[in-house]
Amino acid sequence: MSNQAINPAPQPSGTAAQTSAPANEPRYFRRFTTGQMWMHVILFSTFLGLATTGLPLRFSESPWARLMAGAVGGFSAILAFHKFCALVMTVTFVVHVFEILKRGILRRDKSVFWGSTSMVANWKDAKDLFMHMRWFIGLGKKPEFERYAYWEKFDYWAVFWGMVVIGFSGYAMWFAPLFAHFLPGWALNAALVIHSEEGLLAILFIFMIHFVNTHLRPGSFPMDMVIFTGVESEHEFKVKRALEYERMAKEGKLESRLAPAPTKIGINLGRVVGFTAIAIGLTLLGLTISAYFY
Amino acid sequence: MQSSRFKLRIMPGLAFLLAVSFGHAQPATECLACHSDATLQDASGKSISVDDKKFHASIHSGMNCVDCHASIKSYPHPDKVEKVKCESCHADESSQLATSIHSSSKDHPCTSCHGNAHEIFPKSDPRSAVYALNIPKTCGQCHGNGGMAEKHGLQSVAPRYVDSIHGYALSKEGLLVAASCSSCHGSHHILSHKDPNSPTSKTNIPQTCGKCHAGTEAAYMSGVHGKAIAKGDFNAPVCSDCHTAHDIQEPTASAFRSRSTPICGSCHKDKFSTYRDTFHSQLGSLGGYVETARCWDCHGAHDVLPTSDPRSPVAPNNLIATCGKCHAGANASFVKYQPHANAHDRKLSPVLYYIRLFMNLLLISVLTFFIIHTILWLLRSNFQKIIDSQNGGDKHE
What we know:
The structure holds two protein chains of two kinds.
Chain A: H1 16-19, E1 28-30, H2 34-58, H3 63-71, H4 74-106, H5 123-136, H6 150-174, H7 176-179, H8 186-216, H9 226-229, E2 231-233, H10 234-240, H11 242-251, E3 258-259, H12 264-293
Chain B: H1 2-9, H2 12-21, H3 28-35, H4 52-57, H5 65-68, H6 91-98, H7 111-114, H8 135-143, H9 148-151, H10 158-163, H11 165-172, H12 181-185, H13 205-210, H14 214-222, H15 224-230, H16 239-243, H17 254-265, H18 269-276, H19 279-285, H20 295-299, H21 319-324, H22 350-396
């Protein structure tokens, strides 16, 4: 199989191309662990579940809201489904936080919290954003990125804090009398406003921005398969994350990241799952936008 | 028709008998000698036959034909006889009818409801057209689909009544005390609901319904709505404003529950709009099987009282009990929840107002920034692709 099939990216014009000669056999490098891939799948599945069952509530007077509620067996079913997805997502979130603490504190891996491979934003991200925007309007060169580009970090933190905020306000409403022991009753009013607005932001952001930035833009279109296969071709690696590639090459660690090429079945499975998710997301986006014009 | 006339002419013996006995008390049997013929018709083709059996079973069986058909003095009687005047006996009913909404009826006003004049039964008899269980069908002849009333621009109420809780009790369960048409509208003296004397005029509805629902009427009259009506404020709702008149449903049924909030909301617009922003409404408007608090779950239904009244379920002292009906474990802090908070009103709910403002600004600014970012990126990437392909092309050439 060929790597062109996965991602026909344009030839890089920067310095990345000069760092290593192309191999005869396309090489693949691991970007995400199996655990991270699963986390993404669980996260977006539960997110789609939460969005599908939350939107009819947010726009409960839209004609489609009743249809959707009716389709799954009325409101009690929709609420039960919403709570189930919330629980699964919460478990995923807790597992992720434990993972970070284990790496960062138990194993004293400081790269989790700062440095070029950390998710924590740094000065370079601010500069990258600025330079990237300059390049958009034809001023200056396109910046080169490390392991995580600024928009990927934003995605991550948006989801991270989104889960904290939406989760907390959601559980406050779910267990309202319990929360009322240490929160005033009007906080429940605030909880609904926060829950629904932040949820709406998450839905609009993921379906409008994340989909395009990560999957639908030229260079990744129609889908960036790396989150489903866990590996990317050497070419992609060099183009998309030139700085990481150079650093790894310089440190002699490139070979340690080598991985087998993705199997055809793996790619197809990833495509089916991914496109289904995108189709559901775009449908929900359409319904959400239509609710404002109804 | 020919044959029946012919028959009349070829019965001279019988005719003689009749002629002799006229002028004395006239037993019905003698008239029935001709009129029991089921095919007997008058010149216009209208049946003039009388079912002997049914007539003798009817409430008028003890009467003679000429008691009602008073214009017939002798035999042979003229082809055209005068219309029977029921009022000669039923004067009260007749005078009531004369001032009722049915006074203009072109049909015989009595038989339209009481049925065939020779087969009238007491209203306690199941064979009577005005027997409690038969009333909806009888009134429905005109007030149903395609009926007389519909032609006059009136609603088809009979089928709606049949599906209502009263109609169900009456027609499906055979419950004689269930309200039928005449229970509310009266019978001979039916007036338009616009007439202040009508039992269905807005002022009189509480008393009319209270004839059966006495406890509810008492509760209603003690609440704000009843007091307003008693004072003559007709903006306040009476029974039918919330329950409707002909489509009354079981109030605990989810169909009625989901319909009830907009009914209160049709007057209490500001409370309705703030209620609609809450979780109670969002859940409730999707219908289904989860029941969330609707207006009267908290405020009470018939004896609605102002918050300032200590008996009101929403009076501060009663909130823990009221909220606790659904929310087990509700405490003093929990009941500080505002079921009518308005996140758009800075003065009423300032904290909520600023939280909402902040969330909206966050949403708008994040999306605006990233939408611009994404669009520029898309444009630039596509532009870059064109440049790259041209450069690539140059190299190949």
